[in-house]
Amino acid sequence: MLMLPQAKADLNGLRFKMASDTLPLVMGGQAFFNLAGAVLWRVNDYGELEGGARLNMRGKYFPTVEAGLGICDKTSDETNLHCKTTAPFIRLGCDYNFSRIKTSPNRIYGGIRIGYTTYKYDIDGPDLQDPYWQGGTLPLKQKSISSNALWGEFVFGLETKIWRNFHVGWTARYKRRFHQKENNTGNSYYIPGYGKNKDHLFTGTFNLVFDI
Amino acid sequence: MKDFIRNIICIWLVALAMLGCNSNDCPLNNSVRLVCGFYDAANDSSLIVSDTLTIAVRDSVILNRATNEAMVSLPMSYGSEADTLVFRFTPEGSEASISDTLIVSKTNEPHVVSLECGTSVFHSITATACTSRTPSATFRYAITRVAVSQPNVNFDGQENLKIYFDIHK
C-alpha cells in the first residue's frame, strides 16, 4: 500500500504519542555526579562537588534535585586580595525530554532550576594605604561574613547511554541571580552552586549518570 | 551512538573553552568622597562662596584655591576616627585670609569592590562639630553650623554635609 510521506509522518507521530501516553507514571530514577564541577575546582580556584537525583515520569518529565558543596579559595594576581568559602547549596527543578522516543536512552532535554545557598566567607588582603592622609593604613581581614543567595537557571542538556545502567551527559546553563545578601565589606567572589558572583552567567555540567 | 557521544564531548569542550573567557567589569565611579554643599543660614538656599577657598588637613592641602564653589568633595582619612578640616577663606583682591575648622567623626570600613577591581574605604559619619565666627565686612563668609544630610560616604556621590554660612550683607 502506498502512503504519502506526510501521512506516514503523522502516523509515526501518533504511534509515539500513544506509546508515551501508555508509559507508567514513574519509570524509575537516576542518580548523577557532576564531573566538571570537581575538575573546575582543581584547575580554576573554585568549583562544586555536586550530585543529584531525578525521577523519570513517563519518559517526559524529570523532577530533579541537585545538591553539593561549593568551594572557593581564590587570590587575585592583580590585587593580592583573597576570598575563601566552602558551603552547601541545593537546586530544585524539572527537565522535559524533547526526544520523540520517550523510552530511548538518548535524551535531549530542557528545564529550569531554582537554587539557594547560605554561606560564610573570608576576605583578606594587604593593608589599605591612605593616598591623601600620610601614614594612614587600614587592615583588611574579615572572617566569617554571612551571606545567602537565591538564583534561577535555564538548562539545556543532552544525555546518552554508554554501558549498562551508565549514561553520560552535559548541560549548558544560563543562570540569573535573584537575591544576594549584601555586605559592606564586599560581596564574595563566588556563590556556592551558582558560580562567579555576577548578575547572570553561563555555566555547564558534565554528568556521570546511573539508572536506579 | 558513537557519533552522539562524540558530539556530546565536543560541544561540552567548546562550552568549557567559552567559560574560560573572563572580563572585569570594574565600576568607573570608584572614588569615595565627602560631599559638602554650601548653604545660606538665613534662608536655607544653596550658596556660591565667592572667596578663594583652600582646605587643609594636618600639613596637607586637599583643596587648593577654589573659587565660586557651591559644593566641594573631599577625601577622608582611612585611619583616623575624626578628620579635622581647616577651611581658609581669602576674599577677592585680598592677601589676608581667615579660617574656620570643621571636625567630622566617622567610621572607617574597608570595602572590596571585587577581587580584580581592588578596594576602597567607606565611611559613616557619626558626629560633626565646627567653629563659629561672626562675619565682617572684610571676611563676608563664616561657617555657622553643619548638618548631616547623608551619613554614608561611599560611591553614591550624594551630598553628605550641609555647611551653613552666615553672610555679611
Q: Could you name the key traits of this structure?
A:
heterodimer; A: 212 residues; mainly beta; eight-stranded antiparallel β-barrel; 2 helices; B: 169 residues; six-stranded antiparallel β-sheet; 11% helix; 47% strand
Condensed summary:
Chain A is mainly beta. Helices cover 13% and strands 60% of the residues of chain A. In chain A, the strands form two sheets. Chain A has an eight-stranded antiparallel beta barrel with strand order 1-2-3-4-5-6-7-10. In chain A, strands 8-9 form a two-stranded antiparallel ribbon.
Present the secondary structure layout.
The complex is a heterodimer of chains A (212) and B (169).
Chain A: H1 5-21, E1 29-34, H2 35-44, E2 46-55, E3 61-75, E4 82-97, E5 107-129, E6 137-163, E7 166-180, E8 190-191, E9 195-196, E10 200-211
Chain B: H1 2-19, E1 34-40, E2 52-57, E3 60-66, E4 71-74, E5 82-90, E6 98-114, E7 118-130, E8 141-148, E9 152-153, E10 161-167
Parallel strand pairs in B: 1-10
Antiparallel strand pairs in B: 1-4, 2-3, 2-5, 5-6, 6-7, 7-9, 8-10
Description of the molecule:
Chain A is mostly beta strands and 212 residues long. Helices cover 13% and strands 60% of the residues of chain A. Chain A contains 2 helices and 10 strands. An 8-stranded antiparallel beta barrel of chain A has the order 1-2-3-4-5-6-7-10. A two-stranded antiparallel ribbon of chain A has the order 8-9. The relative contact order of chain A is 0.18. Chain B has 169 residues and is mainly β. Chain B has one domain (31-167). Chain B has 1 helix and 10 strands; from the N terminus they run αββββββββββ. Chain B has one helix at residues 2-19, and strands at 34-40, 52-57, 60-66, 71-74, 82-90, 98-114, 118-130, 141-148, 152-153, 161-167. The A-B interface holds A 36, 74-76, 78-79, 81-83, 106, 123, 125, 128-140, 142, 158-162, 168-170, 172, 184-187, 189, 197-198, 202-204, 206 and B 1, 4-5, 7-8, 11-12, 15-16, 18-19, 25, 57-58, 60, 62, 75, 77-80, 83, 108-119, 121-122.
